[in-house]
Design goal:
The protein starts with a strand and ends with a helix. It is built from 4 helices and 5 strands. It has a 5-stranded mixed beta sheet. It has a single domain, classed as Glutaredoxin (3-Layer(aba) Sandwich), CATH 3.40.30.10. It is of the alpha/beta class. The longest helix has 16 residues, at 32-47.
């Protein structure tokens, strides 16, 4: 597993203070598309090691963080850079499509 779980208590350390861009998977256990996204997210976490930090956030447990980022639909992948939102990907998609979106986003924030 190449990702960590994000909580309100570790948010500053893992996201705000990170020198590496961070991608956060906002999910819930009851969400079918979120369960479909989980293996894609895990595979991608290995492919971007050292280039992008992968974090998972359970919206049922961390409602305040989900609300702070106006996450209205899940799964939502939020890309953060230097403590600010750089972009987001909403909804499930095949691995190739998600990877292409991530690559495009990373090109624009470096």
């Amino acid at each position: 597993m190449a990702y960590k779980y994000l909580t309100l208590s570790n948010f500053d350390e893992e996201v705000k203070k990170s020198n590496t861009p961070v991608i956060i998977d906002f999910y819930a256990d009851w969400c079918g598309p979120c369960r479909m996204m989980a293996p894609v997210f895990e595979e991608l976490s290995g492919e971007y090691e050292g280039k992008l930090k992968f974090m998972k956030l359970d919206t049922e447990q961390e409602t305040e963080l989900a609300q702070n980022f106006n996450v209205m639909s899940i799964p939502t992948l939020l890309i953060m850079h230097k403590g600010k939102e750089a972009n987001r990907i909403v909804g499930f998609g095949p691995k190739a499509a998600i990877k292409q979106r991530i690559d495009d986003i990373l090109k624009n924030i470096k």
